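Now for one record:
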Amino acid sequence: MLAPPTAGHLNPLQVLARALIALGHQVSIVHVDGIERFVTDPGIATVRLGADGGAALDAYLDLLGRPTGPRGLPRMIAATAGMTARLLDHAPAMLERIGAEAVIADTAEPAGPLIAARLGLPMAASVTGLPLLREEDVPPPFLGWRYRPDAIGRNRNNGGYQVADLLLRPITRVLDERRRGWGLAGEPEPLVWEAQCPRGFDYPRARLPACFSYGGAWRAADEALIDLPRDDRPLVFCSLGTLQGSRRALFHIMSAACAAVGARAVIGHGGGLSAAEEAALPGDPLVHAFWPQAAVLRHCAAAVLHGGFNTVLDALAAGVPIVALPIAFEQPGTAARIAWSGAGRVLSPKGLRAGTLAAVLGAVMHDPGYRRSAARIGAEMARSGGVTAAAARISAALS
């Protein structure tokens, strides 16, 4: 498996890996030193490129925590290009050394298809976030544009893709240099595309590959029930993921908004807040660095999220409506689909006030249409077969 070295991608991928192991495969996740911190399953091998104690990964994750602005975005893209270059330079020899016979390339890491082509290996594509396939009617995933399949929408989308191409030139340059150096005319087509994303959550598409499968969240067996302190207040799950979990002011607004609508916030900050910062949050919230979020969400009336894909899928699987506060990466595109599907509302976190969030949160909690839409998508995911079905299709294709 070749994927970005972040929990958001590696968490679902190791569940997929475990399902493939159950089918008789051996699975290794390959990336820089330090990825083993994210791989908790002892049956999955981690193959590390270099031995710097995880310093490169630490520096990269720090940049991902500050990905916006005129300085943050170029730095993040340059660092991502460096990670891709490291994979291209060192992973082919490592894959030969361990005897790899196939590649599962996550679509968020563009090195995977080139490495498979270099080694002549069959490849499956894993789609752990939004599908990144470009279509003229579908906006770029990093933009929160609504679906508009007309001439105005297509012209707007085309401009967005052109800007994306300019911004991503450092990554494209690395890929083009290796492609020329290796004498590759192209890249192999995946034998199968497997997505966590349910069809009902994506914008309509006209040119999906024939071997593309929508699905549902790749999660381990159902977690044990969780006993939460309860009173007569409804619970609202609040999360900004692991990379953006240090935004103290935003958590303060979320907790205050929950209190304003008579709810109690359940906050997961991913280790981004100190004990003193936890204690200073208003409204008597329940606070931990990490929660078993799928189990917690089953007790919640709503969720306030940054639009991280895995947490959004967990909320939808529980039929929980969402208020999205997208910050970076694919979060604006994910948030736009929350609104398009009817499963929630979207607010900008910039300049956000607790009163504004409280008004929207109250509407999402009390209008049953939002919960019905979330439940509809959750039911689709339940019917998809989830990670078991995805692993079976990958195994059949690679065999």
